[in-house]
Amino acid sequence: MPLDKQALLLLCQGRQEDKMILAKLYDQAVVSEKTGRVTFSDFIDPVRAKTFTDFVVRQKAAIEADAFGGTAGCERVLLAFYGQGQPRPAPEDYPLRTLKIKFPVKFCTPPGHREYLGSILGLGLDRSKIGDILIREDHALVFAHQDVADYIRINLERVGRVTVTVQEAQRPEGEGGQQNGKELRITVAAPRLDALLAAVYRLSRGEADALIEGGKAFVNWSPAVNGAKHVDEGDMVSLRGYGRFLVGPSAGQTRKGRTALQVTVYGK
Fold first, then answer.
1. pLDDT tens readout for residues 164-190
2. What are the structural domains of the chain?
3. Do the Cβ atoms of 193 and 187 come closer than 8 Å?
4. How far, CA to CA in Å, does 190 sit from each of 219, 231, 258?
């Protein structure tokens, strides 16, 4: 069954940026469907990746969609589209490369994720060409689209105020995921989505509800439109424009009967 573009765009609920990204994914998937060739997307965030891959499954399309970001657990991924019955693309088939950005750890404060990303994008690159950035003790590993990897390697000389060197590296195995999260203890009347968003991002309950109703909140990368939704330990909650956080274990009840929770907060 061919993919229904109009049904896909209805999922965007009027959000123009989502329409542009999902329409581009649709075009790449259709090329694969018509030619039998494997096609790849640029890097996309986990919410849109899940939206599109779930859509392909529901449509019972004649293509498959797989995701890979450079190693296990990556959030930003490339999607691969290929016909049913074709071999699944291997990790080395994806158009990405791993760059190692090293800095003189003895002589400076290590840069953070924001500094790395800002310096790379400051070279004039689009965010869609950059995947996850894994921070290490004396370096960072960056997954970059092969179209821009050499450009970054040659031109990136500083991250923030720190002089760095860039070289190509082997793709790491069995690591990835969130980096440098900030631990935060919050208390809420109940572990509801609206209450957690208000507590983590210092919003009023009305502001949190408006963002949820506007389609900006997600739990485990799926849209969440009900502020009363119960959030469990291990859930990843994201709020477009603010960032995301991982819900940790409950720390019990306060004297006033509120629920105490440990969360790990990540940047935008």
1. 999 999 888 765 555 567 888 999 998
2. 5-90 (3.30.1370.160), 96-169 (3.30.70.330), 182-266 (3.10.290.10)
3. no
4. 16, 9, 7
